[in-house]
Specification:
The strands form three sheets. The protein has a six-stranded mixed beta sheet. It has eleven helices and ten strands. With about 325 residues, it is of the alpha+beta class. It folds into two domains: about 220 residues, Thymidylate Synthase, Chain A; about 60 residues, no CATH class. The protein is about 40% helix and about 20% strand. Keywords: Cytoplasm, Methyltransferase, Nucleotide biosynthesis, Transferase. Belongs to the thymidylate synthase family. Bacterial-type ThyA subfamily. It comes from Paenibacillus endophyticus. Pathway: Pyrimidine metabolism; dTTP biosynthesis. It is found in: Cytoplasm.
Length: about 325
C-alpha cells in the first residue's frame, strides 16, 4: 500500500470530517478547510492515484503546454486534452459573436437538464472544431490570457521587459543549488483581474536541493480536492522529475500546501466510492534520457509504467 495515496485519502477524510459549508463562485457549494499540507516521497513511486484512474496523458500534455509558455487551448485539443475547454468556451458564448442557444450557467444546467445538455454538447463540439481549424477564431477564443505558461516563461515587468522565471530557476539550481530563491510565481496581481480566463489556483512553487535530491513545494490557493488535486500532485511530481533530470539530481519530496481545500457538494458520492477502494502499488515514470532539457521534452518522451488503477470515477467540473 502506498504512503503517497494514503496521504491523499486522508485529506478527503479530514475535509469530510472537519470541513465547513461554504458558497462559492460557481454556485455549486462546497465543504472547505483552510490550510492543509501533504508530503509525497517521490522515491517510492510516481504519485498517480490507483483508487481511480487518473489520465497521465492529460497531465503531461498540460504540463508541456505550461512549460512551452503556451496559453491557447489549440495545442491541448490537438492532444485530445479537454480540461481547459470550459473557460475558453465561456468567453465565446458570452461574446457578441456567439449566436447559438443561450448558454448562461452552462456548467450547472448541463448536469440537470438533458435537453440543455444536448445543446451544450453540440455547441462545445462546434467550438472545439472551430479552434482546431480556424486560425482567426482560435486566436480570439482559444486564448486564455496570461495564465500559467505566460507567467512562468514571460512575466511582464514594469519596465516593459519580460522574465523567464522557469528558465532562470533551472539555471540557478545548476549554479547555486543552495539558493533560497528557487521560486516561480503564477500569481500576477496586475493580470488577475482582467487578463486571465481563470486566476491561477496553483499560485507559486519553490525548489529545494539537499543531499543531491530535488524537492518541490507548491502553494495552491484554491484546491478542488476530488477532481483537481490528483492532477496537481501528479503534474508537480512530473515537473520535479523533469527538472531533476536536467540538473543531474535525484528526486526528493513533493510538498503540497493548500489554502482553501474544498470538496464540491456534487462530488460526495464519488468520494464515498473512492474511499471504499483499496490503494494499489504506485507506477513508475519513464523519461527519455536523451532529452537533456525540460524545454525539449515532448509527449513521446514521457510514459507511465506498471500503472494498474481501479476504474475512473466521473464527476462534473464546476466552472
Amino acid at each position: 500500500m502506498s504512503n503517497s495515496e494514503q496521504t491523499y485519502l486522508q485529506l478527503l477524510k479530514y475535509v469530510l470530517e472537519h470541513g465547513t459549508k461554504k458558497e462559492d463562485r460557481t454556485g455549486t457549494g462546497t465543504i472547505s478547510v483552510f490550510g492543509y499540507q501533504m508530503r509525497f516521497d517521490l522515491s517510492e513511486g510516481f504519485p498517480l492515484l490507483t483508487t481511480k484512474r487518473v489520465p497521465f496523458r492529460l497531465i503531461a500534455s498540460e504540463l508541456i503546454w505550461f512549460i512551452q509558455g503556451d496559453t491557447n487551448i489549440r495545442y491541448l485539443l490537438q492532444h485530445n486534452n479537454n480540461i481547459w475547454n470550459e473557460w475558453a468556451f465561456k468567453r465565446w458564448v458570452e461574446s457578441t459573436v456567439y449566436t447559438g442557444p443561450d448558454m448562461t450557467n452552462f456548467g450547472l444546467r448541463s448536469q440537470t437538464d438533458s435537453a440543455f445538455a444536448a445543446d451544450y454538447n453540440e455547441q462545445m463540439e462546434l467550438f472545439k472544431q472551430k479552434v482546431l481549424t480556424d486560425d482567426r477564431f482560435a486566436e480570439e477564443f482559444g486564448e486564455l490570457g496570461n495564465v500559467y505558461g505566460k507567467q512562468w516563461r514571460e512575466w511582464k515587468t514594469s519596465q516593459g521587459d519580460t522574465i523567464d522565471q522557469l528558465k532562470d530557476v533551472v539555471a540557478t539550481i545548476k549554479q547555486n543549488p543552495d539558493s533560497r530563491r528557487l521560486i516561480v510565481s503564477a500569481w500576477n496581481p496586475e493580470d488577475v483581474p482582467s487578463n486571465m480566463a481563470l486566476p491561477p489556483c496553483h499560485t507559486m512553487f519553490q525548489f529545494y536541493v539537499t543531499n543531491g535530491k530535488l524537492s518541490c513545494q507548491l502553494y495552491q490557493r484554491s484546491a478542488d480536492i476530488f477532481l483537481g488535486i490528483p492532477f496537481n500532485i501528479a503534474s508537480y511530481a512530473l515537473l520535479t522529475n523533469m527538472v531533476a533530470h536536467e540538473c543531474g539530481l535525484e528526486v526528493g519530496e513533493f510538498i503540497h500546501t493548500l489554502g482553501d481545500a474544498h470538496i464540491y457538494t456534487n462530488h460526495m458520492e464519488q468520494i464515498k466510492t473512492q474511499l471504499n477502494r483499496e490503494p494499489g502499488t504506485l507506477p513508475t515514470l519513464a523519461l527519455n534520457a536523451d532529452k537533456k532539457s525540460i524545454f525539449d521534452i515532448a509527449m513521446e518522451d514521457l510514459s507511465i509504467e506498471n500503472y494498474n488503477p481501479q476504474p475512473a470515477i466521473k464527476a462534473p467540473v464546476a466552472v
